[in-house]
């Protein structure tokens, strides 16, 4: 970005700041004397545990105050505003505080890849690369930086709770929210989301993980019943949550819209109580997805703690149910205690939010850096990349509004660029233009743009250029699924024609999920850039010209065709199925259609492995501008088996290799052929070797035994495999484990 643009942004941010709501609005105002009194209350003693502090507050609460803690108070645009709407901060919801006891309002905002709807709220936020892109980094430290930035920007905007933390497994890659999630492997996804949450919450916001559980498609999400075996659920979708919760310790878990095995997730005792609270000992609160609550007595008994965004079931109805004994007081106490506990544990009581100006420049820097770690180099025939800035004289930039910006994912995750608020599901392009970013790398070269609308004109420009770079896109959003994985708007034909005109054609994809590539053999270079965030174009240019050596690996399989998916045909609601509003707002609602996840354990690469089906690009795959060699595998059995090996940079550039460890379980375990159990991202200079040692959590080697309702390690021979992708595993060793 040029200096004047930067200046403009800084001025814009400060002007917004001047006109924004003062810090104290959105929190209850208190007088000094009251504040002093509150400081002296026993629960304000920070040396007590969060549980002790929550218990002390709970004892002081009236029935009405307890009820206040367990429901929302509306969301802008969701029905008629309530009289206390002025207490909100413009976000997706809020829970009133208990001012007399020093308990603040919980101000919630969506924050998948940045703080949502900042424009509506008159504020500015950084858009990071989409979550699936962040999973492509395979880097817990990068996930931590991602969370920390969002945590800081939430607080700067007056929020103290995030609704980010999506980790639904990519079981159905056409799911319109795939960009909000962390890919198809539960151990990778869980580890990364956990690190994101840990660091987000360390900024003193209540963390969240969602959508619990098996909300793996958007089609009919409010009325679908997911049918899945307990074993498959525990080893796939729930394992991602289990790991994420254990690493990140989020204050909240958001239950999902769909039903699982007959009961809506937000009134599903198996999910909320048996697994989450009893087995995993989750001490925080369960918050319903927006309008995902369907009952009072059943939901409360099942373990739902907080209804959002209204109080349809957890307001007067809950109060009456407690008074009549249908809901025991102890149960309401548990809901309220959990909310309070998360307020103390996250630090929002001890560190009240104070609105401030977001660090725009700092955010750009982090967004660019994270995207550089997220871009996957999928193909590099004849080393067409990195582009040689000494010799390239002309470049054709084609398609996808590359003259003006980069794409972002829509729905409640949408982060707005500066300017007026965008409509729901409007396609939003961030003003960081690939054309400009590429041109800046080669000041002497002719860099020209063609919109791609007319493939002939694009091909003509490509023909007259040394190199053609086609930007391809596939937009996704909450509330819809993709009909297939093809690039929309005739882009396949555009790419074919450009490639026919110029053999030096590179495709850069901006997508939130896998795309099919009928033209793959005709293209020299392919980058998957995902939705790349506020500084995506700069990051893409840095990779194209080799200022950054790509190191990301696919967190999901790219299949050859939707025909190869476990369910070639997306399951959609039958005609006449209850619509969203009907299902969401009706007590005693029932799911109206089912999707049967009978592929069970075989999610993503596990499906293609088991079916022996070739793929376009496998899970864990990604190239670099250097090469790596693997040797010396040694597996030491034990409680947490230890895996050690050497990785060597055998090329001429410094780089980072994600070294991946997979295991094939004994045949008697009845598992797909292999699973990822660990990895390490290793920085290596040219010629350098490093010894890598990874110890493997025994759960990652275990299966879920439905009969015993617990994890068990099946005794027998385990094959450990190590390499740079799920389909390139040069090292192998068998060990017996008991
Ligand atoms: C989405 C959630 C989101 C909530 C609040 C729902 O429609 O499914 O992910 O946090 O709205 O905006």
Task: Describe, in plain words, how this protein is organized in 3D.
This protein is of the alpha/beta class and 738 residues long. It folds into three domains: 3-346, TIM Barrel, CATH 3.20.20; 360-562, Rossmann fold; 626-737, Immunoglobulin-like, CATH 2.60.40. Helices cover 28% and strands 19% of the residues. The chain contains 20 helices and 27 strands. The strands form eight sheets. It has a six-stranded mixed β-sheet, with helices on both faces. The protein has a four-stranded mixed β-sheet with strand order 8-7-5-18, with no helix packed on it. A four-stranded antiparallel β-sheet has the order 22-21-26-27, with no helix packed on it. Strand 19 and strand 20 form a beta hairpin. Bound molecules: beta-D-glucopyranose. The site of beta-D-glucopyranose has 7 residues, from loops.
What characteristic shape results from the CA principal axes? globular
Annotated CATH topology of the largest domain: TIM Barrel
Number of domains: 3
What is the number of helical segments per DSSP (H or I, 4+ residues)? Answer: 20
Task: Enumerate the spans where pLDDT stays under 50 for 5 or more consecutive residues.
Answer: 1-25
* Portion in strands: 15-25%
User: In terms of structural class, how would the helical and strand content be classed?
Assistant: alpha/beta
Largest beta-sheet characterization: 6 strands, mixed
**The named CATH superfamily of the largest domain:** Glycoside hydrolase, family 3, N-terminal domain
CATH class of the largest domain: Alpha Beta
Distance between the termini: 58 Å
């Amino acid at each position: 970005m040029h200096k004047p643009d930067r200046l403009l942004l800084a001025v814009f941010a400060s002007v917004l700041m001047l006109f924004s709501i003062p810090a104290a609005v959105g929190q209850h105002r208190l007088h000094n004397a009251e504040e002093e009194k509150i400081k002296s209350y026993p629960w304000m003693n920070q040396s007590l545990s969060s549980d002790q502090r929550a218990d002390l507050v709970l004892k002081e609460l009236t029935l009405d105050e307890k009820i206040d803690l367990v429901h929302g108070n509306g969301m802008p645009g969701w029905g008629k505003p309530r009289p206390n709407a002025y207490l909100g901060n413009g976000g997706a919801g809020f829970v009133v505080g208990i001012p007399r006891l020093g308990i603040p309002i919980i101000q919630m905002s969506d924050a998948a890849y940045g703080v949502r709807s900042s424009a509506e709220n008159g504020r500015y936020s950084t858009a990071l690369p989409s979550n699936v892109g962040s999973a492509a980094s395979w880097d817990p430290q990068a996930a931590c930086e991602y969370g920390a930035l969002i945590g800081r920007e939430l607080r700067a905007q007056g929020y103290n709770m995030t609704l980010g933390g999506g980790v639904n497994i990519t079981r159905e890659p056409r799911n319109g929210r795939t960009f909000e999630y962390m890919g198809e492997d539960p151990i990778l996804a869980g580890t990364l989301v956990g690190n994101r949450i840990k660091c987000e919450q360390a900024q003193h916001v209540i963390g969240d993980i969602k959508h619990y559980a098996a909300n793996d498609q958007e089609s009919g999400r409010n009325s679908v019943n997911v049918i899945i075996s307990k074993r498959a659920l525990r080893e796939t979708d729930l394992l991602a949550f289990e790991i994420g919760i254990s690493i990140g310790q989020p204050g909240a878990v958001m239950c999902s819209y769909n039903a699982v095995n007959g009961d809506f997730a937000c009134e599903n005792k198996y999910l909320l109580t048996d697994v989450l609270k009893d087995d995993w000992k989750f001490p925080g609160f369960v918050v319903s997805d927006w309008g995902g609550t369907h009952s009072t007595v059943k939901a409360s008994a099942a373990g739902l703690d907080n209804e959002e965004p209204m109080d349809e079931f957890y307001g007067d109805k809950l109060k009456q149910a407690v008074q009549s004994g249908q809901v025991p007081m102890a149960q309401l106490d548990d809901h309220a205690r959990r909310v309070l506990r998360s307020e103390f544990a996250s630090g929002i009581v001890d560190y009240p939010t104070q609105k401030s100006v977001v660090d725009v420049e700092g955010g750009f820097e982090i967004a660019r850096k994270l995207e550089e770690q997220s871009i996957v180099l999928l193909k590099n025939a004849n080393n067409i990349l990195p582009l040689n800035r000494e010799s390239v004289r002309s470049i054709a930039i084609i398609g996808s509004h590359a003259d003006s910006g980069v794409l972002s994912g829509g729905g409640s995750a949408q982060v707005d660029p500066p300017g007026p608020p965008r409509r729901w599901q409007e396609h939003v392009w961030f003003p960081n233009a690939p054309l400009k970013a590429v041109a800046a790398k080669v000041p002497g070269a002719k860099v020209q743009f063609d919109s791609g609308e007319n493939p002939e004109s694009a091909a003509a420009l490509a023909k007259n250029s040394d190199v053609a770079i086609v930007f391809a896109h596939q937009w996704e959003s909450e509330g819809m699924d993709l009909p297939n994985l093809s690039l929309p708007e005739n882009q396949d034909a555009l790419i074919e024609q450009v490639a026919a005109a110029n053999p030096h054609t590179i495709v850069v994809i901006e997508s939130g999920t896998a795309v099919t590539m009928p033209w793959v053999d005709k293209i020299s270079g392919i980058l998957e850039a995902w939705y790349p965030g506020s500084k995506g174009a700069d990051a893409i240019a840095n990779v194209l010209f080799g200022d950054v050596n790509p190191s990301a690996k696919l967190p999901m399989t790219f299949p050859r065709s939707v025909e190869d998916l476990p369910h070639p045909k997306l399951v959609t609601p039958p005609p006449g199925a209850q619509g969203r509003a009907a299902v969401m707002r009706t007590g005693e609602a029932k799911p109206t259609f089912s999707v049967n996840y009978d592929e069970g354990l075989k999610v993503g690469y596990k499906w293609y492995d088991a079916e022996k089906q070739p793929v376009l690009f496998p899970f864990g795959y990604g190239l670099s501008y250097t090469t790596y060699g693997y040797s010396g595998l040694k597996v030491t059995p034990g409680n947490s088996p230890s895996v050690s090996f050497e990785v060597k940079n055998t090329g001429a550039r410094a780089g980072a290799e994600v070294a991946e460890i997979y295991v094939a379980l004994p045949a008697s375990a009845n598992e797909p052929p292999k699973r990822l159990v660990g990895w390490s991202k290793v920085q290596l200079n040219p010629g350098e070797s490093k010894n890598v040692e990874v110890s493997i959590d025994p759960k990652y080697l275990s299966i879920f035994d439905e009969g015993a309702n617990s994890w068990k390690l099946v005794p027998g021979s385990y094959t450990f495999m190590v390499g740079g992708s799920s389909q390139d595993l040069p090292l192998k060793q068998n060990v017996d484990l008991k």
